[in-house]
Amino acid sequence: MFMELKYAIGVDLGATKTLVIACDTKGQILVEKQEKTPTSEGKEIVIKNTLKMIENVRDSSVLKERLFLGIGIGYAGLINYDTGIVRSSIMLPDWFEVPLQEKIEKHFNTDARIDNDANAAAYGEWWIGAGRGAKTMICLTIGTGIGGGLIINNQLYRGPDGTAAEFGNMTIDYDGPLCWCGNRGCLNPLASGTAISQRTVERIQQGKQSRILELVNNNLDEITPSVVAKAAVEGDELAGQIIAETAMFLGAGIANLINALNPDAVVLSGGVAEIGELLINPIRQEVLKRAFAIPARRAKILKAELGNKAGAVGAAGILISSLT
Ligand SMILES: [Zn+2]
């Protein structure tokens, strides 16, 4: 019998951008649209804009002959996956107890699922990205902050409250810098993109000479992890130091996770992971020094493959897998 062609829609709803894609049941992207999220205009406008973007994608002519399976959403906040409710978000501040899944299901008269954006990105990388074939996989999304996702035995592990895999809030330095979560010395304030930029600015303000200053025309606000990486490649001492410290913090955190979970793969995504081997190679060395030898040798530490599409593709994948 003729196999019917199907598609699902995946949404990555973040504080700065909203990405909506349509993909087939193998994760192949058929349509994609991206817009700035109107975060400052409040929750209702953000929801309205998201619904409109989904409609636009759904009405694309290339999808006409295909059966619509439903909508998966990755959202930058604390989600109850079972009820489909957004509980809160630090990125989108006026969201409390929002029944987003129900709103979307009613509007489109179809199935919807909603999950945390880092979970969605982890699922995407596991489904069709760098973590393909891993039974147990850890994903760290290292951007402005650090998010985490965890696949155990081919399934996303969310925990009873949906708060599992908050790897950015593991304590690395018990007396370290304050984190947004209230704790000190989490991985977040040590190794996130924000932390890398801040630490670099502080050292320069303390009088450390660096080529970074030329690269940003003396404008300290323009220092980003990719600028630091560029200076490190050019042999700049401060930049090299910052990268080495960041690799040590991440390596310590990942060694903890490897000892705890014995994963097949650790996938690093987000802007900071885009630095690539310059950062990932010293992370591997640090992990080998710190973790038990057997699980450390097993766990492949890999750069993510799906870039900024992991969350949207993963959200669609979560929806598709929930239907079968
Ligand atoms: Zn924290």
Question: Would you give an account of this structure?
Answer:
With 324 residues, this protein is of the alpha/beta class. Helix content is 39%, strand content 21%. The strands form three sheets. It has a five-stranded mixed sheet, with helices on both faces. The mean pLDDT is 96. The structure holds zinc ion. Residues 169, 179, 181, 183, 186, 188 line the site of zinc ion.
- What is the average per-residue confidence, as pLDDT, rounded to a whole number? 96
Beta-strand level of the residues, as a percent range? 15-25%
Count of beta strands = 12
Order of helices and strands: EEEHEEEHEHEEEHHHHHEHHEH
- Report the uncertain regions: none
Secondary structure class reads alpha/beta
* Ions, cofactors and other bound molecules: zinc ion
Distance between the termini: 20 Å
| Main sheet overview | 5 strands, mixed
Task: Tell me the strand order in the biggest sheet.
Answer: 3-2-1-4-7
Radius of gyration over all CA atoms, rounded: 20 Å
Secondary structure tally, helices: 11
Helix-strand layout with pairing:
Blueprint: E1 6-13, E2 17-23, E3 29-36, H1 43-58, E4 67-75, E5 78-80, E6 85-88, H2 100-108, E7 111-116, H3 117-128, E8 137-142, E9 146-152, E10 155-156, H4 188-191, H5 193-205, H6 212-215, H7 225-233, H8 237-261, E11 265-269, H9 277-290, H10 293-298, E12 300-303, H11 310-323
Parallel strand pairs: 1-4, 4-7, 8-11, 11-12
Antiparallel strand pairs: 1-2, 2-3, 5-6, 8-9, 9-10
